[in-house]
């Protein structure tokens, strides 16, 4: 377990570095990330390098026993590079340049960017690849897609398409360009989606987004190759910015050793039960699922964010510590706070760090120091543990993108709808892994595969095999609609999943915000909205019937026995209570322990391994909460003392319980 | 009476064409529209033509007794054309190109577009001008204006202005360019309104919109000339997209045989009394008024629309049939459903047709088939009938445009305000024709001429003559404000209509959303908003006085005897109840039958001719409705049976009654 | 005292000029502004001038005893100039031209604009510099900043920076460009903020805004130099458009003789107590503070505004007169109505003047005529008087701009927050001068210095000296945050004002719209929002403590004795009642007369001088109001009659009382 900070020595007089390092050491900091935006300092003009300051910074930290992660600086091409090689700049969809100054001024397809990134990364890795104070590398920073319409991007896109489709005849057929006379007769007619209209061919748009994601992943792999070559024994990671993005994070991280995430929970906790708290849990579960192993938080909330936009509320007392524990609880092996000092200069002056601008430790710093000390105490217990769950949710960046290109109804949003189901499990205290939809899920007991809008035959086969062998599957509406080229299938819905679900969709009504109701198993009334499939069960039985509108009495939700297992099909978007009731039933069938009375904002998570098992109980709210845990004798790992039930949690209270 | 579908054989394997034709025949379909977006299939590369597939399609349909309307494909220039002749693309008001991909990528002023349109239309008409299965032509598709700032557009605009004004001295004077030093000293200084600012000279902006409308009309006439030359015996039409648009539809259709309209009523019927239902009636009345004869619906709602935007609700059970009958009731002689099959490919995948993607007939298809069968039964009765009314509303695309350039007050919208008055007649069961404001209206008994903002002397004269001869006229506020060049008149309001109205506007208050009240004839209180004229009656009598604000007690509405007739002047925008009360009074004076208790969403229309008279009673709502008709013995044309009163209408219920 | 109108003879046939002049004379008009947009009439083509019409117009007016102010026409470069010298046009931040037609089409940095402005202004001043009917000049029109990214602007910006910083090393250090690798290695890399992103370096953005303000001021000074040279004995002014703008009006007017303002109070008075009314008072106080002397209203509301945007309500009966008196009450020595006639042509047709389009005098003209007559009666009494107050508020266009670049929290807006404090004084009947924050304020008794976000050492010193010597200072939150280069200070807040305030900010919470409460002096509860400093008093005492959230019980507002004076620090944004209660206390300590019961919308102002003292009591509302004045015997200057108390004010009632 590591605790660290992000640090920008280049922003400060070097006179204070030593004092900073000393204070870091005193606060238990063992790792620092450096240099990820420092290209203009490392290479002030083309071909002229200056590593002296970075040597000093690493040494200064090293002398205090602090290890370093270096970020490659490719996210911020310096002015000389942009001026001399303007192809570094992306062009927007009207082919106007994106100007430098705000960190987004680089086209991943630019040959000049590639060449100069190669030079600086080679220099950096050659110099620090064997530095004992340097333990690893972060590539670039928060790569969140590419939307460049430069000559290079257009040319790369054509190559990408040639590789995928071979010739224009195939491309025209697969995309259905005949619609609106869009057939290409020459490759020179094929461009990126210029003009930015959302009306364009959806097959074209989805492939373009795949190309964008691939361009980014390729740029990341290219850096990883250089680092791997020069830096044996040092790890490689990247710090992701949370979904929704165009990027396929599974691809992006395929050459990384582990995933890292930047975690900025919302500080407005006036509505404790609202999305922010749960959003964090999903972000952690998603990040852990990328490499299916523990991860780092490379930037953790340390103060109110705010810059060009208004500042949010300052973190409530206890929040810095509690949310850092949340990261650990859900699988972080390192928590790196962003940042040590609030910047005095530049656009992020008011994105507050652990210290305010005056540099004196205050309340937020003290909370961090407490967390740091607690981690030190629990370090041995945490080593070798990770989060292991019985439930997997299949996440797909391709569904996310396809459903953004064609929103299905008012309010229908892949990520929000996905999050709502994840939330239901969280409120029931049931841990979920969130994994790539195309990966292996055979070891789980329950698999939730929502919104399989684009149909992948292999995934369909795996789901069928999983259920056959005794697993339980939850499927939902808007599945089996399209093939992977974003063309509608001619099978009845839910396409290839029909026999698994045991049901066909006779008709559907995109009800949007026109709320409807249904009744679950004849006795629990719930609301639903966005979309209503009107189901005709074949082998399935109904477990939920609509009670409103012209489809009153028709089936909304089904359960189907399939081989040794079971498949549920939810033909609508339920409200929170509806999901919770349904999932509690499913969990009960599977003998998964579920809490009925977990207060809103209280989260549970278990880390286990090497014979240890730690239950984290987090009160991520501004109010006091108490709960009755279904476990007999409990001991706090933080205090060593026995816990009496009900467990009382102060605002932002954290408890870590030894289960064995 | 024809029933048909829009069909895209080029989107489907030709193996299914035969089966489709067979099913169409079985469903009573007698006409199909083809090919209006198929340029890239008809001319895959420049000068190379392929009509074989279209021959086949027409033959396949013809063998089943189905006639064909061919759409000219000029709305979608293919990629080769755009690549080779980039002047085909419009430039936006910042002179950036509008890129292909979304159907709007053609500048009507482009010489290359003109030349290549000529080639393809000549080829098409030469080939099919005497094909017995082809009964007519649709030019282009939904031409909704031009807003191109290309070299050709600018040059054409200068020519247009030279023709209208002769020289710059006149132009400068008529437009009042002296304001803000906008005088032109050379023609090269005259451009289209670059930059898109709404602050520009309103005379300039209105003439530019007229030029845009003329450019489109000219492009349409140019196609009509070719078709007329090659296709004796086949009709020519165009499918209009509803107002508001820049286009003057009266000009656009001047060389067409009849008008067609694309009709997509909103499927969200949760508020039955709201605008969608009535909007349909106005659309039909407007379309019928363009050529003052029956029309076609070239695209009729067949399923939920939705594409790049979220899908709406699916049509409520019965809606497909009821709204198709609404079209017939208001003068359609053909109803062509859009479309036969939901597209599997392209941007409009979720703009649903009669069949879902799986292609199997379902509820919506059945409703259509029922409508088709009913039309077949009533066909003989419908033949030779049309809608004849005593009331005309004068519609002006020029007022619409002028009032969009200079919105008069918060909430003031020409089309919405016009629609509200039309709605009042509809709720009273009084049929209205909606006709061009400059056309002859001497045969009507009541003429409503709202918002004659731009004053046309001929129209003023005709209104005076009409009233003199015994007609009744309803005038409104914001009349007589400007001359036709969009320059304010120096006469007191309402300008040249003062003696007809018998009133002058002493002062006005653009009250916007600041609601006011008035009292009608001393006993009916109504709300008003947007605009309040404070009237000084000269020869008129007050029929409505304000009761609020500083103008309480002043006159709001007047009635003036003029020759043998009467003129009303409404100096404000009334609420729905106010309009209904006022118009009921007017109708009562004229002995026009008016319903007092027509339920919201129930519409009446009469088709008559050749000694027949059919009363359509439509319940366009999700609820059951009943009404008492003031007619004695009634027989249903649909069932042949006698009707007992009150007439009970099921949700989406349709009744067609034989009146003689 | 002068009363006048803005007049555009060039828009009308010269036949009516004589009649207009006659009617003006009859209405007591003594001054007319002419020609500020007439470049194309004065110089129809390059180098060809036509002054005959302007000679005539001036003569016609002169014969009626009406004096003339000429506006230089540089705000509207004519088409020939733009066509021949396109560098006249500004480029937007994507380097696209701003097209002519809407009055904003000139780049202040353009050499061609400068050269041709010089020619026309020299010609004009040479011709009219000694015309006895011409009393003064208005430069340009409503210069509200420059946001041009033309070559000239970029080049001027580099020169401006070189002059300020000398070299790039200094620039890089002062701006902190090291953040995100933004360091410049060549001057050619320095541009204006292209692309328009709000994310850019805030030091860069603030300097760019200063440069824009300087470019405008320089253009104004350049015109003033020419006028001064040719027009001895004639005054020079400029008509400002109210804040918020980028311009530093103190710089803009430094070569002007006095300030002028264009005053268009909102006509929607449905909420009498709302901002519009008070906004006028602040506008007047700001304008008077620019040169610290009386000013002109160069454009005064005469009818509903409305053009490309919807019209507002017509001025309520009495409003024209009452708001003209408001201008006089707060220091106007001339009220020039905009405009004589409503324009029949051009974009501002519905920006109504004193006459409607028909040109006949009506209600609004009569109100103006009454005002004009009253001014004539009071003229002798008003001569030599001005507004003298004990309280100054320090206004800073630099804080305004810096706080727009980085909004601090939801709802935090410098101008609105400033206005709210000004409003509190107004409601208490306490007159306030609003002066430049860097100017001398030693003669006041109370100085309010809110939101000194950027810290100016000289201002800090002056505030300390002022309090030392016995003055009272009110400081607020968000002071001492930054240095003048927009870089955060490393001192504890409120920076250099700490000892004056006697307090440090321990922590802060940007609460935004999350409303909090506090209690003043233990007995008055008030709301607060936007921002909460948590204060640690050093030498100060608490006068307000929070009662909510985690900072309940902590100090929000302090009072500190400092030398012979006192400093208050308000660590949050109070609600209206909170400010009023606090300021009433402060006023009471200083024995400043404060009204406790002034009805909303009733404003007081005193003009005094030359042994005279006039109290203006204005009821700027649609309702009747009455108030008890704490003065014994009162006489109306308007009627000469004695006033009995309570003073009853009719809607829009105006009373002018002789105090001595």
From TrEMBL, chains A, B, C:
GO terms for biological process: galactose metabolic process. GO terms for cellular component: beta-galactosidase complex. It catalyses: Hydrolysis of terminal non-reducing beta-D-galactose residues in beta-D-galactosides. It holds the Pfam family Glyco_hydro_42M. It comes from the Bacteria. Residues 6-377 form the Glycoside hydrolase family 42 N-terminal domain. Residues 601-657 form the Beta-galactosidase C-terminal domain. GO terms for molecular function: beta-galactosidase activity; metal ion binding. Substrate binds at residues 103, 141, 308. Gene3D superfamilies: 3.40.50.880, Glycosidases, Golgi alpha-mannosidase II. CDD domains: A4_beta-galactosidase_middle_domain (cd03143). The keyword Calcium does not apply. The active site is at residues 142, 299. Its EC number is 3.2.1.23. Keywords: Glycosidase, Hydrolase, Metal-binding, Zinc. It is an enzyme of class 3 (hydrolase). The keyword Cytoplasm does not apply. Residues 390-592 form the Beta-galactosidase trimerisation domain. Zn(2+) binds at residue 107. Coiled coil: none annotated. Belongs to the glycosyl hydrolase 42 family. This is Beta-galactosidase. It comes from Paraburkholderia hospita. The lineage of its organism: Bacteria, Pseudomonadati, Pseudomonadota, Betaproteobacteria, Burkholderiales.
